[in-house]
Each structure stands twice: as structure tokens, then as C-alpha cells.
User: Fold this.
Amino acid sequence: MTAAAMTDRPAAFAPSGKYKLSAAGLLSSEWTKLWSLRSTWIVLLCAVVFSAGLGALISGSVPSDQGLSGAETALGFAMAGVSLSSVFVAVLGILTITGEYSTGSIRSTMSAAPKRLGVLFAKAAVFGAVVAVLFTVMVFATFYLSQALLDGTPLGGVSLGDDGVLRALVGYIAMIVYLALLAIAIGSILRNSAGSIGFYIGVIMILPQLATLLPWNWVSDVTPYAPGNVPNSIALVDPSSGTLGLGESWLWMGIWLVVAYGLAGVLLKRRDV
Amino acid sequence: MNGRRLSRSVSDMIEIEHLTKRYGKKTAVDDLTFNVKPGVVTGFLGPNGAGKSTTMRAIVGLDAPTGGLARVNGKHYSEFRSPLTEVGALLEAKSVHAGRSAYKHLLGLARTHGIPKRRVTEVIDLVGLHEVAGKRVGGFSLGMGQRLGIAVALLGDPAVLILDEPVNGLDPDGVKWIRLLLKGLAAEGRTVFLSSHLMSELAQTAEQLIVIGQGKLLADTTVEDFVSGNGKSHVRVVSPDAAQLAEHLTGPGISISSPEKGVLEVTGTEAAVVGQAAAAHNLVLHELHTVRGSLEDAFMQLTADAVEYHQTTEGANR
Assistant:
């Protein structure tokens, strides 16, 4: 190249250096992305209506001559809708990541954050926090609503101060958050909406229930440790009636999350976007 | 960080070294090596499936190379602390969630780097999407999707722009606009690297040219050299005395063919020389003109082998 050609060319443009990719930025980005989709509002509204509605419907229609009593049963009735609305939460969690793959927006996302793992963890943190706040409100609101409807029956008169009640209600919140986080990892691993939702409903929700019908003993020894079953004990007023102890239940939730996010993280790093 | 602006020298901003990418058995990019300089628009030309998109995806780290490497400003893309200010990329139109508005899509990306809302509005205005910024992207036309993609690329005010087929779907006004925009950005010292499968498109925008076919480098040159080197022009002569004229047109580099009786196609000389030769020997001419090879011809000529190779391997695999 001649000297003249060198001077013809302007000096290379240098970026300003004012902006930096950061963990706070990724959290803020995922927050913006979550609430800028109509599906988020619709699915969460469904979860709210379903958890409060079903809890109220069941609590309001308990026949008084059934001889049912006790905080365990009362909470079971109140939280029936909360347990089932975990499906809405899981589907939404899956869609936060598979929706990016199906629409191609994952390419924009990963070009902005090429180390990739931060995106997965920011999604999990933001969605986990949203679900935790929403279901803290829903679990306690549904509990009080149900108790108001059960007032005067043998299932009424359960208070937060009763042994194990508060812990069981917090257990319901933790269970929903755990399932939401598990769903995001499944979405990240499978990348496909239909496949991930099918896997969640089939393998996490239904398979452990079906497995108990099988005639082999080892199956019933294993099923309590299935990822969909491990949170069951923490939502019991009297955890001694559960197949896993309280500590075991928390431990296995942790193990499954580490396994799921470990696999999701490795695959996210290794695969092409 | 103030010293940084001064310390940047005019070196190659994008370096592709022995880049190879295989998807299963298919080799998309095959031992590709080239550099892209700042300050000029560099065109990336190749037929469909030549490996242009794969190369561009490798530059921004979306695809991991099977072999070799792709670097920007001496670093792998994922090493940058602020990727969006280093490289702005338009990879495929509509890399956007259809249910999100253009504004929210840009805001979501801006937030990752702490880029203010003011800049989001700025790029929306710049690409002319002001009126539809609040609408969901699912209803956008191809051209609007492209404009949004260009807004995404410009969001971080980056030093390097990588644009995969940016004119696809744009109307003539849009094509003219993006040409001026890209030349302007290059004049500011940015590196502008854009792909196209249309030579005519690049000839009007780019100065430098990288041509690939079947994932292999075919040419790394300037647009000017490419056109004069590959676009064959010849002199066409129609004369009742064609055979006699041909005898008088001898010289180094001159070759003559006769596609039909009374017609000569002369390469390696000019029309004036042919006319003088005819006059000197009193030969009658009915027609004398220069036929210039088009840019597309030059491109087709260069990629012909690659395309043929492609078709034979397809047949062999069947």
C-alpha cells in the first residue's frame, strides 16, 4: 500500500467505551423482554384465576357431613388450584426460552451476550423472582379465602400460627418456583416449545404418577426421587407423612436443579445458536 | 479509556484464518482466509449456499468453527466486554420475537449494555421506523424487518458492521438509503462488511470485494480490479469480408472467434484498431462495436467452476 493510500483512509473508528455488558444489564433486559409479550400477562392471569378460583370452588363445596378435619386436609383443598397452576407457570417458563429459538430472537440475544450463560441465569433469576412474588401473594390470599369459606366447618379455624401451617404454605411457594426453574432449564435443553411442554407434562408431571401403578417394587422405591415428586414433602403440614423427609426434599430439589442447569449450561456453550 | 481512541491503528479489523465449518458431512466453509479493513465498504459475494452467512455467524460467535478462527480487532467476539459497541450485526432479517414491538426489542437489547432509551429512539428514527415502533413485529413487511435489523446493528454505535444481505426486501428508496448510509459509516473509519449474491448490488456500494464459492475463497480484490480483470469485453464486427479482415488482425494478445459467418468477435484489442485495419485494406464493415462484459458475467464466470463442482457432487451422492 502506498503512503498516499494510507492517508486517504480515515483512522479506524473507536467505540465510545461508555456502555458495558453487565449482569445487571442482562437482568434488566430479561425483565423488559418478559413483560413486553402479551403471552406473559395472559398466562399469569390464568394462573392467578385458576389458583384462587379452584381453591375457592373446592373449599366452598365441601359437604359438612364428610367427617373431614385437620389442617393437612384444609390446606390440600385450599391449594389444589395452586398446585395445578404450576402447569401455567412451567409453560410460560419454557416459552421464555423456546420462544426465542422459534422466532430467531435468540440470535439477537446471543450476539449481545456472546458468553451465553449469563442469559440463561438472568432468565431464571427474573422469572423465578416474578413467580416467587406472584405466588407468595396467591398462596396467602387463597389460604385466607379458603379459610373464610370453610369457617364453621371442621376444616375451618386453621391459622398461620398452627404447627407446620406457615411452613407448608412457604413450601407451596417454593415448589412452584422450583418447577418454574426446572421448566426453564428443560426449555433451554430441548429448545423446542412443543417438545419441552410435552416433556414437562409427560415426564415431570404424569410419569411419576403412572409409575406407581407398575407391579415392580423398585419402581415405587425410585419414584419419590423423580424431579416432579421431590417437592411434595415440603408442602405438607406434617412432613413425617411424606415419603421423603423435609431435608431430603430440599436436598433433592437442589440436586435436580444443579443437574438440569449443568446440562443446560454445557449444551448452551457447546451448541451453535 | 481515553487513550483508546488514539491507540487504534488502521489495521485489519476482521481476520478470518483457515476458517472451516462443517454441519455433519456438509462443509459450509472450507479453509477460508481473508481480512477486512476499516474505512471502506467490503462486499462479500457468493452464490446462495456459498458459506457467506456461516462465515458471518462465526464472526459474532453464534457458530463455533470446526477449524480455524474468526477474530475482530484481534479478539474472539465473546472476549469483548461490550460486544454491541464493537460489532453490530444484521444476520437474518427478523431475528426478533414476532409478539414484541420494535421498540421493546431494541430496548431489551439496549438494556444488556446499559444503552439509554434515547439511543433506542435515535436508531428507530434513523431507519425510518418511527411510526410503527410500537407495533408488534409479527405484522412487519420484509423491508420493515430489514430496517429493524439495521437499527439493531447500529444500536451500540459499533466500530464494525456485519450485514448479511441487507438490501433484501428493501424498496428502491430503501436500497439507495442504505448505500449512502453504509458509505457514510465507512467514511467515519468503521469497518463495513456486507454480503450479497448480486454483484451489481455490491459494485455500487463496495470498494473491496471478497468472493467465495462452495465455502472457498475465489477472489480477494477491489471491485475495480475484479470488474476489469474478470469482465471480458470484446469487439464485435459484422463484415462481408470477415475472413480477410481476420487475417489482418494479428498481434500479441489478440484472439478472434467467429460465432457465425460474417461475424467476428475480437478480444485483446479495441474497436478503433479494428476500424483502422479495415480502412487500410478497403474492407467493408456493416457493424463495429464494443461488447462489455457485465458484472454479473464476471461473477458467474468466477463462480462457474464452484457451481459445477457443487452439482456433480450432488449427483454423486444420490
In short: Confidence is low (pLDDT under 50) at residues 1-8 of chain A.
